[in-house]
Model the fold of this input.
Amino acid sequence: MKARPIVLGVAILGLTALNACSTSQVLNEGYIVDQKSLELVPVGSSRAQVLLALGSPSTTATFDNEVFYYISQKRVRPVAFMKPHLVDQHVLAVYFDKDGKVERIANYGLKDGKVFDFISRTTPTGGKDASFLGQVLSDTVSDKGPGVHL
Done:
């Protein structure tokens, strides 16, 4: 019956080695929203103030007026040798009025599979902006397709 402790020891050693390999790694990419930086750009701030406080945007667009987009992604790699997969993505949007002043700020992500603004707690209505946001954020669910990759 001396084989039993050896088998138990090998089993424990194997489980320990397997557990060491299974630790997942979280990778945050892109712009990470900092509440203190956001407080430096209230409604009415200039474009220059936004650039000083938040830095250069990930991308910009002009729909009715200019919009700065700051895109962040969270990926998880389950095991060190595996490819990380996208689990969360947010788009901080800073909207400017015709005079180049901040009109509003939104923090978009997906909630129940739909684009959702976590600041105003609303779902954006249709239009070019909503279509763009839907395209960018759709990668969170499928991790495939034409969305923006950082």
